[in-house]
Design goal:
homodimer; 203 residues; alpha/beta; Rossmann fold; 4-stranded mixed beta sheet; 8 helices; 9 strands; 19% strand; ATP-binding (chains A, B); nucleotide-binding (chains A, B); cytoplasm (chains A, B); EC 2.7.4.8 (chains A, B); GK/Ca_channel_bsu (chains A, B)
């Protein structure tokens, strides 16, 4: 569906526990909505098998990340399971000013910081159908030890407490359905009266 | 797309100037989303060619309408171009309680009353691409005199002042696109965290 010309792009924040399938949902979403700019986060964690630098993350060393913090280059950053994650401010601002929607994949601490700096950001939290299913998905990845998996599940329970701060809640039981819900949310946000007031004659 | 089980139905209010094509958009919408209950308004105006009692409106006499007002049977009512329009409360409440979305087609005065009584109602205003196009559509209907058309255009300009009170603004330049936007709004509203908090385990 063609979108109307926008005065300003929409900042969209996507969060969800490790293992929920966020990357798959995002890939599906970006496949259908190629006009969205996906902001690739910076991180100090090591790439997993199949992850590429500049695609899944910009992988940097710890001292480089700390320099970016010191130089104020980040919209937000947080430490999560002993690694830094952060979002570069400059590219995002350019895209939003050009009327392009920007999607951020960040965890709950970062999302709260984005909300405080950009009150108009749309915050979406993705949950699995159940904790049992999340546990199954984490084990199915075959990348983490049982100890790490237990840590991720515990972290997920803590993250859930932040859900009331999110505007929308999407359940990823089927990737295509979750992506479709997110696309509907983006269309709806685009239809908000405050985002379309420029379309009205004589008001 | 299958919708998740809801705790409560959503009340949706659709407004827009006479001639914007609201009935056509609603027909398209209800064709795609047969789970929505369309609340047929009561009115004292005479049926237009092709309009059926109980379908487009419940057509009643003025004294019957005034009895309904007196007996508190209406969620809202308003007078518009010398005719009464109103919404019956009972059916709506039953549907919402059963988890069914209810769509109301009402003008701006009625919408404001619904908002004050039901703060969670979703208010959508439909505009034409331009006033010129609205004028063309009104003339194309061949049902109204030039004087009535001029009155409707003037009324439309007044209604436009109420647009900031609406949550969403949909431009009806193409019926299918307008209906698709409204469907997206309904899906998004269904995804709101406050409407899905019952899906979260342990919160």
């Amino acid at each position: 569906m063609a979108l109307r010309k926008k005065a300003k792009g929409q900042l969209i924040v996507l969060s969800g526990p490790s293992g929920v399938g966020k990357s798959t949902v995002i890939a599906e979403l970006l496949g259908q909505r190629q006009d969205i700019h996906f902001s690739v986060s910076f991180t100090t964690r090591k790439p997993r098998v199949g992850e590429a630098n500049g695609v899944n993350y910009n992988f940097v060393e710890r001292d480089e990340f700390e320099r970016m913090i010191a130089d104020g280059e980040l919209l937000e950053h947080a430490e999560y399971v002993n690694n830094y994650y952060g979002t570069s401010l400059k590219v995002i601002q350019e895209k939003l000013d050009a009327g392009i929607d920007v999607l951020l994949d960040i965890e709950v601490q970062g999302a709260a910081k984005v909300r405080s700096k950009c009150p108009d950001a749309v915050l979406i939290f993705i949950i699995p159908p159940s904790f049992e299913e999340l546990s199954r998905r984490l084990r199915g990845r075959n990348t983490d030890s049982e100890e790490v998996i237990a840590g991720r599940l515990q972290k997920a329970r803590e993250e859930y407490k932040q859900i009331p701060k999110y505007d929308y809640l999407v359940v990823n039981d089927k990737v295509s359905a979750a992506a479709e819900e997110i696309i509907s949310i983006l269309i709806a946000e685009d239809c908000r009266t405050k985002n379309r007031i420029h379309l009205i004659e004589g008001v």
